[in-house]
Design a protein that fits this description.
There is one protein chain. This protein is an alpha/beta fold and about 210 residues long. The chain has two domains: about 130 residues, 3-Layer(aba) Sandwich (Rossmann fold); about 70 residues. It has eight helices and nine strands. The strands form two sheets. The protein has a five-stranded parallel beta sheet, with helices on both faces. A four-stranded antiparallel beta sheet has the order 2-1-4-5. A hairpin with a 2-residue loop joins strand 1 and strand 2. It is globular, with a radius of gyration of 17 Å.
């Protein structure tokens, strides 16, 4: 279980959010809503243990994530709104290096298969810098197909994707949830993913 308790973050002299709390169990999805500047990305990064909140804590399976170190980082996959890929490397190379940084290895064949499934058939061995924005996003999202993390934290994962890619990503997320995974995501698009086990959290809501 993921537990977020009394989380507060300040940027400069501005309070981004205060006393945020939620829990997430196997098979559950949390939609994080909020206007630009409300602190969505900051909250996601705090959940992953990438930044320290000013107050509160994040617990994974009952323990503070700051104490778990690699035991937690191997169970969480964070995909930011930036793709985080190297333009001079091919899709296959980017995916294999990302896997190593995530703490495991994938074979060249597994990487090719993942990129083909994500819709990059015929583009696997091209430098990422020659791909379109949508294709580069697919390279980044291919990590979801090979990573073993239980918790996915996704910042605007549907950005720059066409309809076919959106539908494919929806299917990948549904499969992860059905297998007992957990997902926290932000999105400005209406993308219904699951009906029975979804939660919503609003930051800086106006109105």
């Amino acid at each position: 279980m993921l537990e977020v308790s009394h989380l507060s973050c300040v940027r400069g002299d501005r309070q981004l959010f205060r006393e945020i709390g939620f829990t997430l169990e196997a098979g559950e999805l949390l939609y994080l809503h909020g206007h630009n500047g409300s602190g969505k990305t900051t909250l996601l990064r705090a959940v992953c243990g990438l930044i320290l909140p000013d107050e509160g804590e994040v617990r994974w399976k009952g323990q503070n994530v700051r104490a778990l170190h690699e035991d937690f980082t191997q169970e969480v996959l964070y995909l930011g709104h930036k793709n985080g890929i190297k333009g001079d490397l091919t899709g296959v190379e980017n995916l294999r290096i990302a896997a190593i940084l995530d703490g495991f290895e994938v074979s060249e064949k597994t990487a090719w298969d993942a990129l083909e499934r994500i819709g990059l058939d015929g583009h696997e061995d091209l430098p990422a810098k020659v791909l379109s924005q949508g294709q580069q996003r697919r390279v980044a999202l291919s990590r979801l197909l090979v990573n073993r993390a239980k918790l996915w934290v996704l910042d605007e994962p549907f950005v720059a994707l066409d309809k076919a890619a959106v539908e494919l990503l929806q299917s990948v997320i549904r499969d992860h949830l059905a297998a007992g995974g957990m997902v926290v995501l932000t999105t400005h698009q209406e993308v219904p993913l699951t009906s029975g086990h979804s939660k919503h959290l609003k930051l800086g809501w106006r109105g």
